[in-house]
Specification:
177 residues, alpha/beta, 5 strands, 33% helix, globular
């Protein structure tokens, strides 16, 4: 599952390892471009290996319901099941420059890890983060209100790394260095 944006992730997905591509994109004006990009890399709704969910990452109940409905009507999807709520879990969640614009990002990341991601699954992310140097962090704080308005809700100084780690991964998962 990807927090989709423009669909740039599709070009990096290995068909030997990725059986289905689920894209979260609340901006429906981007769906046509996202479908086109995904199809150019072999992920297509007609083939049953591509799904766009028109909601944000914070809408965990809708994500779970839509995944359940999709997997029950699409035999080619191989979404694992376990004891998670509604039984739906996926292997990998990819976030690329998206955590910064999620309302209530700490709760959302926790819910994605515990209600959508299968036990032992992976969350891959590439995000801008809060700079550890105080002077740079002050600049991030200063530009944050304007940045948020110009860049569709993005919080430029968000400590995305800590949010992901604090989501509650099991103790046996190591923090990347």
């Amino acid at each position: 599952m990807s927090l989709a944006g423009h669909g740039h992730l599709a070009s990096y997905l290995d068909h030997d390892k990725v059986t289905a591509y689920v894209a979260l994109e609340p901006n429906t004006l981007m769906h046509a471009r996202l479908r086109e990009k995904a199809a150019s890399y072999g992920f297509d709704e007609a083939r049953g290996n591509f799904l766009i969910l028109a909601c944000g990452a914070e809408d965990i109940d809708r994500i779970s319901d839509d995944l359940h409905r999709w997997s029950s009507t699409t035999p080619s999807t191989d979404l694992s099941t376990s004891g998670h709520e509604r039984g739906m879990v996926i292997d990998t969640i990819v976030c690329i420059l998206t955590i910064c614009s999620i309302p209530s990002p700490a709760q959302t990341m926790h819910d994605l890890v515990h209600r959508i991601l299968r036990p032992g699954g992976q969350l891959l992310f590439y995000e801008h983060v809060r700079n550890p140097r105080p002077t740079v962090a002050q600049v991030q704080d200063f530009v944050a209100p304007i940045w948020k308005r110009v860049f569709d809700g993005c919080v430029v100084g968000l400590d995305a790394g800590s949010l992901v780690w604090d989501a509650g991964f099991p103790d046996d998962v190591g923090r990347a260095k």
